[in-house]
Amino acid sequence: MNRFQFRTEMIRSELEDIVGQHFVSVDESDKLVYSTDWSWMPQMWLDRGQPLPTPDYIVHPESAEQIAEIMDIANKYRIPVVPWGGGSGTQGGALPLFGGILVDTKRMDKIIEIDEVSLKVTAQAGINGEQLEWALHEKGLMLPHYAAASRCATLGGYLAPRGTGTISTKYGKAEDMVLNMQVVLPTGEIIRTAPVPQHAAGPDWPRLFLGAEGTFGIITEATMQLDYLPEARLLRAVLFDDLSKALEAGRRIMTRRLHPFVIRLYDPESTRSQVKKVLGLDYEGAYMVMGFDGDPDIAALEEQKALAICTELGGQDVGREPGETWWEHRYD
């Protein structure tokens, strides 16, 4: 065994001492799984015949304390660490460009507390977004983020890239819902930000880690602001001959202080390709889906006013069913 092999086995052994033998992998097939996310870069490399970057070690911790110990090892041997949630990122932030230790957080999937009075949930960062949503729905609550990749994304994956969800038009982005976070710093220190929405003194520490893709620390736990599931959720589709008219309709809806939870607009080419392919709807033109939720009477009134704006600009109301079909199949 040469010096490099000896060092590799020593690091592996120390990692196994932390998380257990079954939760450390150096298998080549496992490494290949973690060599790509949903970003365009891996596909470009493959098209050019370039090899994909792979980690040297894949580790599955179950606590912030274990991640802190992993960071100690990384600092000791001066090797990089890459946090991994669901692998659904589109910016390449989870790619192990320089090898090192890949920390898969999906074992950290516990809901710590659902506070039905203050409307907040505290959960480990590795919990799957859809599983978290199911648990909240059972109590009549929701985390109004609704990421496009929520079926495979994790809570930490909502926050590390500052994700924007489907219904952010009304409810805001994931970063707007954060009340508190636990983070393991590159030094191995575990910190917790202030457990309140706003505070009068000092910097807004969560903002340091939101959008940093794990470079300043690994998010291990988060407390998020919740909302009640809406009493009504009304969706409707409108078709425009002219994309510019559709854009103007969206602008007027927003500037007149109507409150759609979603406005989704497809240009004519996307209408032909995506709407027909995914939804089976054979339309031509700019296809808009808009939705209003909350109190049934208020939602219906806002929808009526928005539809009047669209009609004024030449939009054709194609009904509620196409909008609902889009909502049901938007992740397909």
Describe the model.
With 332 residues, the chain is an alpha+beta fold. The chain has three domains: 102 residues, Uridine Diphospho-n-acetylenolpyruvylglucosamine Reductase, domain 2, CATH 3.30.43.10; 118 residues, Uridine Diphospho-n-acetylenolpyruvylglucosamine Reductase, domain 3; 98 residues, 2-Layer Sandwich (Alpha-Beta Plaits). The strands form four sheets. Strands 5-6-10-8-9 form a five-stranded antiparallel beta sheet. Strands 1-2-4-3 form a four-stranded mixed beta sheet. The protein has a four-stranded antiparallel beta sheet with strand order 13-14-12-15. A hairpin with a 4-residue loop joins strand 5 and strand 6. The model has no long low-confidence stretch (mean pLDDT 92).
Give a brief outline of the structure.
The chain has 332 residues and is of the alpha+beta class. The chain contains 12 helices and 15 strands. α9 packs across α11.
Number of helices: 12
Rg over alpha carbons: 23 Å
Percent of residues in helices comes to 25-40%
- List unreliable stretches of 5+ residues: none
If you average the pLDDT, what whole number results?
92
Identify the CATH class of the largest domain.
Alpha Beta
Strand content: 15-25%
Beta-strand segment tally: 15
Instruction: Give the overall shape.
Output: globular
CATH third-tier fold name of the largest domain: Uridine Diphospho-n-acetylenolpyruvylglucosamine Reductase, domain 3
